[in-house]
Design goal:
Strands 4-3-2-1-5 form a five-stranded antiparallel β-sheet, with helices on one face. The longest helix is centred in the N-terminal third of the chain and has 36 residues. 37% of the residues lie in helices and 24% in strands. A hairpin with a 2-residue loop joins strand 3 and strand 4. The chain has a single domain, classed as Roll (SH3 type barrels), CATH 2.30.30. The protein starts with a helix and ends in an 11-residue tail after the last helix. It is rod-shaped, with a radius of gyration of 25 Å. The chain is of the alpha+beta class and 119 residues long. It is found in: Cell membrane.
Length: 119
């Protein structure tokens, strides 16, 4: 009985590590593999290094990405970090005067913002 009480904290520690570290990491890894296997041409993606591109073609373990018009590169699927969902409308679209919302806000404040000091 004394041996069981000395081993019980070790067993509890292993169980806690499993539920707090191992299980969530395995789920994230499975989700990433599922996302990488569901890539289709035309999808907008971001690589793990932060490169935004569009999927042109998908081979077995390779993905051909178009970085700019006419510029295609070959990547492995594991390098795809996430699929980027396009927003409905960008926040800084120019208005009819050619100014963005942030530029118009600075004009309305009369350049009183301390961050916009001119030297």
């Amino acid at each position: 009985m004394d041996q069981l009480t000395s081993i019980l904290p070790l067993i509890l520690l292993v169980v806690v590590f499993y539920f707090l570290l191992i299980r969530p990491q395995r789920k994230r890894q499975q989700d990433a593999v599922k996302m990488q296997n569901s890539l289709t041409p035309g999808s907008r993606v971001m690589t793990t290094t932060g490169l935004f591109a569009t999927v042109v073609a998908v081979d077995n373990e390779d993905v051909i990405l178009e970085v700019a018009p006419g510029v295609e590169t070959r990547w492995i699927k594991a390098a795809i970090g996430r699929v980027v969902v396009p927003a409905d409308a960008p926040a800084d679209e120019p208005d009819e005067e050619g100014k963005t919302e942030s530029e118009a806000a600075v004009e309305q404040n009369g350049d009183q913002d301390s961050n916009t000091k001119r030297s």
